[in-house]
User: What shape does this take?
Amino acid sequence: MNLLKKSLLKSPWVFHLALSPCNNCDIEILDVLTPRYDVERFGVQLVGSIRHADILLVTGVPNYKNWQKLKYLYEQAPKPCFVVAVGTCACGRGVFKDSYNSPCSVDEIVPVSAYIPGCPPKPEAIIAGFAKLINVLSKK
Amino acid sequence: MNVLTSLFLYLFFPGFLFSFMLSVICGYVDRKLTARIQYRQGPPLLQNLYDFLKLLAKEVVVPQDANFLFILAPFISLASVILASTILWTAIFFKKGFVGDIIVLVYILTIPSIALILGSGSSNNVIASIGVAREIKLLLSYELPLITSLLVAILKTKSLKLVEIMHNCNVSVETVIASLIVLITLQAKVGLVPFDVSEAETELASGVMIEYSGLLLGLIKLTKQIMFSLIPAFITGIYYYKGGVLAFIIKYILFLILMTLIRNTNPRLKIDQVIKFCWFILFPLALLCVILTLIKTV
Assistant: This one.
């Protein structure tokens, strides 16, 4: 079983979910995935379907239109699947905390395994967040 | 050849185990080369093995309206591609075969696509059905030039036995053109980039594979990997076999690199462009090669 766990940590496939963010975090995530920061070194791949994903990258604040979709997507993902909240909006709700269109934060809908704060977080910070998540998971 | 030997051939040496290992190495070469072309580091050596093992451990999600074909199809496609690799590598390593095995090989190599069409079509997903429609069109478009250009080798050696074709096929203009056509069409068979219309990650969210997860996805990926590692052996075996073992390995690696280069330097075609390319450019070219061969041999 140890080998299977190791291989899970060696090839986390990422599904990118944007919950109506301002797109800054998404640009930084793209920066991480493209050649300059090249996370394929750690086996990270961007996948198109939630059924292939091991990590759900969430950016932005859930609003009334899409918070159920986040829940639905998490339910559709084959487990084990870990949620990573990228950016201040997804971690807490940032400045949108008292907004009329913000029912709850991401971690009230799905269990979040790692928070990467920043507005937007630097690509280095995103990679560091990934490394910390993998470290924590490998000790479990 | 008794049952036990056949089982050994199928499961271990040129069959499952060997082609699995070879596909891991080929996958590494492919991904590393891609990474270097894009000026980045690329994954570690055993990345494809890790991916496969990880997918084994994941949950398998079966859509509510899917029928049994959804689960059966990946197993059929993997079994058939292992059979194809057993036939081909047995002919290369042990110089054994039967009359008509090249026809069997061509038939078996179409089964993975058909299995994927059936399995994905039964998943009842809209995007998957678009992918399935494209996969069917792809299948219809590339089979014609592929079989026509294999005819060149068959007519040239006047044999339907893989081993005889290998040892008698001399390199000439028409075989070189035919081998390049086979390379391009087999690239379409695996779904590599200029012809990955049925997967099309950016527009169809991995199309035919969208509903597959866990073990089933792993089997489909493994099928594609094994087929990818089989193509250079197929082309080298049929058209450029003459020469020693070292020459075979060098040609194998050269074709592997050529496939990766084609995959990395071309944009994705639209499905109508694929059909036009295969039927109106590759097929007449292949037909020309057949005519040239007939003129030379008769």
About this structure: Chain B has a mean pLDDT of 86. The radius of gyration of chain B is 19 Å.
